[in-house]
Amino acid sequence: ARRATLSGETLELTPKAFSVLEYLMTHPDEAISRERLLDAVWGWEYPAGTRTVDTRMAELRRSLDDDPAEPRFIETIPGEGYRFIASVHGEG
Predict the structure, then answer these.
(1) What total of structural domains would you count in the chain?
(2) Which residue in 30, 39, 52, 60 is deepest, having the highest Cβ count within 10 Å?
(3) CB crowding 72-87: b at 16 or more within 10 Å, else e
(4) Phi, psi (degrees; rounded to nearest 5) at 89
(5) Per-residue pLDDT for 41 more than 70?
(6) How far is 17 from 62, CA to CA, in rounded Å?
(7) Could you tell me the pTM of the whole model?
(8) How far apart are the C-alpha atoms of 79 and 64, rounded to whole Å?
(9) Coil, strand, or helix at residue 5?
(10) Domain with 45 in it: what CATH number?
(11) What is the C-alpha to C-alpha distance for residues 27 and 48, in angstroms, rounded to an integer?
(12) Angle at the Cα of 64 (from 75 to 5), degrees rounded to 5?
């Protein structure tokens, strides 16, 4: 099963939020547009607007206890999208 942990605690994420986090983590320090996330995570099935991405991002930030004003994990890049800025440590 897929899971993400923070400080030893398993994060409770919806499948889409997990997929967004996974995509960001596999493209660290890279500005990822909402459109690119929609294509990569939702594919052809995504709803009409990019606000869906913003909703998942808000969910991720709540789970990660990440403040958008002083991000530790996900940085918003105005006019571009989002960037994962934390270091990642995998398990076995």
Answers:
(1) 1
(2) 60
(3) ebbbeeeeebbbbebe
(4) -125, 120
(5) yes
(6) 11
(7) 0.85
(8) 23
(9) strand
(10) 1.10.10.10
(11) 25
(12) 120
